[in-house]
Amino acid sequence: MMVLDGCFVIELFRGVKKGSFRALGYPRNDPVFCSSGGSLHMIRRDMIMLENQIPLFILDRLLGIQHGNPDEKGLVAKLAVRFFEPLMRTDEHSRTRLKYDPLFHEGRLHCLEVYRRSLLRLGPMPEARTWIKRGGSQKRQQHIRSVTELREAGIDFRQRKTDRFWDIKFKCGTLQIPRLLIHSGTRSLFLNLIAFEQSRFDCSNAISSYITFMDNLINSPEDVGYLHYCGIIEHWLGSDDEVADLFNRLCQEVAFNINDSYLSELSADLNRYYSLKWNNWRASLKHNYFSNPWTIISVIAAFVLLVLTLTQTFYGVYGYYRPIS
């Protein structure tokens, strides 16, 4: 069964590399390889599941036998990266270009690990930091507020122009989050990436850190709607409520300490900014009196009226004590 499944996987990889399965000799009406009903997308979703993984060394051996060199290694990982690219999109028209490095993928377990490492290989991953309270060993709680609460504290949200979906930045009161396209396969993809990180003691928690951070940000459909307005989240689901439910359910029963994530320092900065009263007062002033042109006109008119009233009062009092002779 493993040999049969392995041959099927390699044939899929070869067909995607060629650009067409007809180039491999399959007829136009082939129900699997030449189907136009989205079967390839469903196959990708099944193949990325943790319980469906075939050891990479078996796939390497099968492909090596086909090429006449059983000891050949590295080609399957390269084909797998190209095959699974469409699973992580940044928008409707393009797909994330994953990077492949033979040394980086050498000795990997299976295609899911290769795919995960390719996602993180797109750029330098910040190191995780454990935050310790002064004078004690207790870790700080890095739970952050939702989008709605952070906006009330004057924090702006902006789309970060990068394909590294996990590369979140916070500077000068602006939280920059890369664009993420959510589709029907996103839940399964993230669940399996989190499950892999949870099952390996020698694996980082980069994907879990990102999902937990987004879960903290999104508590309601209104949070999703605002992130969509900012160009940060685009989705093909039925409603914003489904997107909120997706993130809120992804990390259920997951053993995770956000203090040990690469976003710990950023979360601490967000909490410090949120706790400053001046930021809340300034944001309240902006939201209540400078949120649209009509309120701005009203504030200016009230200010002008106040100045005129004070001026009239001043001259009235001044004329009483110093009448014109």
UniProtKB/TrEMBL annotation:
Pfam families: DUF247
Transmembrane spans: 294-321
Keywords (A to Z) from UniProt: Membrane, Transmembrane, Transmembrane helix
Superkingdom per UniProt: Eukaryota
InterPro entries in alphabetical order: DUF247_pln
Keyword hit for Membrane: yes
Identification of the protein by name: Uncharacterized protein
Source organism (scientific name): Corymbia citriodora subsp. variegata
